């Protein structure tokens, strides 16, 4: 470890997740510098100002749609790791800017997909991350690391997959990410706690599934609905298949028969998304209304409250996790849900950030600390499941945010529930 | 009849209903002149041109939001009857312009309501037609007639109420308007056959109900859902209470215990309207999106196909009717549905107009013919139920558009179905 250069981070994006990232990182000592960059210099300044004099953080302006803008900041600040915290539309320029500048790279969402032109609901077109994996050999040859999908989902869910394979199962049938929450916003009939623009994008894209005998394939939106029972009082939530990075990542490093991602949207939210699609209100192609040209999806977003402003009015918990079925290390059938729950009241009190963005932001801080200490090393374009899960889960717990494990009877009610508490 | 002045009509509005009105009236001889006026002179010209040389029709430009513009046309063309066929937002200026110019007046929708400021879902505020009834004494004193609500609903439904009271029932429990259809539009998942803007306005206003012991009162939107069985193959459709003129008109002239209006929106459409409301997309207050100011409701309308263009792609039938319960003239319990069905294929073939607008437009033509021949006379602000129903129903049948009567077992299945065919 003594030979490692001091870590110098460039955080691209000072929005909800970016500013939660800085609040969490500020309590740790593993890095020497963190440049907080945003398209809005004011937003970057505000994020740094909130850290009350921690001189490791400095603000900067960046254009995330321009690789050379990212590269210039990497060179100017001798950055070792670029942390991408902007909209997935900007993954490629940030990824390329990091490479051009000579820095390693981390993100929480991968390069975007494009549906199959003729058979979008049965075959994949360009998949999530394809553009990044296309240059994986080059990154590996150069001894450089791009750690992709290291938020909570993808991210912690992928760490759980590695943990299940190494420590709980001798054979895995399905790696099924299951995400659900019981969040409510006071004073609002309907107020999503995350960007409706991105949610529409995720949920109306054809969901992707992986099977050993079939590879990756797609289905129509909202396929395979199931009611999943979430832990710690969240309870049953209706989940449907959604396109998500884990399905593209987990089968590359973890042996399994099937990989899925189901999002606990709840029946009300599913109905809303279906209705928006039926009326064409999900479209980003402009229409003429009130004498002006406007994108219907932008209008939908404008009618809803800004999720970034809702933290103080929100109550409830959010749960990210992985439901694994197969054969346990004892040779008997096993069904285990590995999960991480954050209570909004706790994250608001402890960090001043709402639980959904806090839960996303904590994982890349943990990963960067493992890279800084040398507990995690690797080269190429790698997912979180390419690394040992134990030091990650231990450090997450040490951050004060424990994870949980529930043993489910197969086709039966829950038979056990264990929480890995912080020590 | 020899003393009556020749009828000279000013039609205000050459949209869907207005141009269907001219197509129907052109086949009748009861009037001498019909001035077809629209805000768009081109639209008025097109409606007149479609009548292929019938010199009784002349085109004009009018501003329906300006009473003096209507008055000027009344004077210029020595108009005896102003026929209002524009959006209900313009009822009052057209009504006042007719009065100022010395003409009688007809419309198919009454002056707009405003909800109760504190208790919108239990008490009425300003009711539909209140502004017109406020000057009823003046119209009566001057020997002038305003025949309000003489489309199909309101209109024919109110005629049915008069007919039921005079010929079928000794005592009426409920006068329940029930409107339903089985229209579908080829090539569209979701394509309303009528203005979504107006439908939102009607359906999200608090519905109004009248009861003998309570007077007029309101409920939350979509109240008292019921599945009503519509005749002639339309079948069961989910209906809910909606604010509509009949509830304000029928109890003024027809003795009953209760008056309601239920619209057969169907469960899918009800779900769409509820979702639009939940997301604030029904609002007409502008929001900022894509860098411009826009009304969300206008964006919803812009995303859907223009209903005026759908006639040729539409299939199915529309039904307007009145379900009457009470005691028959024989002293026994009776439940009768009086109805009028138009098949889109028929109205497109016979008149080139889709069934919903054709069904609305035929009724004021019939009423004007009865006023021209002197079979209907009256003064003041009157609803259709203030006149004898029999000549109206006979003339409607003579126009080639018969009505129907179904006797329903009380709490039982249908026990009879009779159609009053054209002779």
From TrEMBL, chains A, B:
Saccharopine dehydrogenase NADP binding domain ranges (all copies): 9-146
Matches recorded under Pfam families: Sacchrp_dh_C, Sacchrp_dh_NADP
InterPro entries: NAD(P)-bd_dom_sf, Sacchrp_dh-like_C, Sacchrp_dh_NADP-bd
Record-annotated Saccharopine dehydrogenase-like C-terminal domain positions: 151-400
Alphabetized Gene3D superfamilies for the sequence: Dihydrodipicolinate Reductase, domain 2, NAD(P)-binding Rossmann-like Domain
Protein name stated in the entry: Saccharopine dehydrogenase, NADP-dependent
């Amino acid at each position: 470890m003594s030979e490692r250069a001091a870590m110098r981070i460039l955080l691209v994006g000072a929005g909800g997740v970016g500013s939660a990232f800085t609040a969490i990182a500020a309590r740790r000592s593993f890095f020497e510098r963190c440049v907080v960059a945003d398209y809005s210099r004011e937003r970057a300044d505000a994020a740094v100002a909130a850290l009350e004099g921690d001189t490791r953080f400095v603000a900067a302006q960046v254009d995330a749609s321009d690789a050379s803008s990212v590269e210039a900041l990497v060179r100017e600040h001798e950055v070792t790791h670029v942390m991408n915290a902007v909209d997935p539309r900007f993954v490629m320029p940030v990824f390329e800017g990091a490479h051009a500048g000579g820095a390693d790279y981390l993100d929480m969402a991968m390069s975007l997909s494009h549906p199959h032109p003729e058979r979008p609901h049965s075959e994949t077109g360009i998949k999530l991350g394809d553009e990044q994996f296309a240059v994986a050999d080059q990154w590996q040859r150069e001894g450089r690391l791009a750690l992709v999908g290291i938020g909570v989902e993808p991210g912690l869910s992928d760490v759980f997959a590695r943990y299940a394979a190494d420590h709980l199962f001798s054979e895995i049938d399905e790696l099924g990410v299951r995400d659900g929450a019981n969040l409510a916003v006071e004073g609002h009939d309907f107020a999503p706690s995350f960007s409706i623009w991105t949610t529409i994008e995720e949920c109306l894209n054809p969901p992707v599934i992986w099977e050993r005998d079939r590879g990756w394939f797609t289905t129509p939106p909202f396929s395979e609905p199931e009611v999943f029972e979430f832990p710690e009082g969240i309870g049953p939530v209706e989940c449907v298949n959604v396109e998500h990075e884990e399905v593209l990542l987990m089968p590359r490093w973890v042996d399994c028969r099937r990989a899925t991602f189901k999002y606990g949207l709840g029946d009300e939210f599913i109905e809303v998304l279906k209705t928006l699609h039926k009326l064409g209100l999900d479209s980003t192609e402009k229409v003429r209304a009130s004498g002006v040209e406007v994108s219907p999806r932008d209008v939908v977003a404008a009618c809803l409250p800004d999720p970034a402003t809702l933290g103080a009015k929100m109550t409830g918990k959010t749960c990210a996790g992985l439901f694994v079925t197969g054969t346990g290390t004892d040779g008997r059938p096993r069904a285990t849900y590995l999960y991480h729950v954050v209570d909004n009241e706790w994250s608001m009190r402890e960090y001043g950030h709402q639980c959904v963005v806090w839960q996303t932001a904590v994982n890349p801080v943990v990963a960067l600390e493992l890279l800084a200490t040398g507990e995690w090393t690797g080269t190429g374009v790698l997912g979180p499941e390419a690394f040992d899960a134990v030091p990650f889960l231990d450090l997450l717990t040490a951050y004060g945010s424990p994870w949980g494990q529930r043993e489910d009877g197969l086709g039966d009610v829950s038979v056990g529930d264990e929480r890995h508490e912080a020590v």
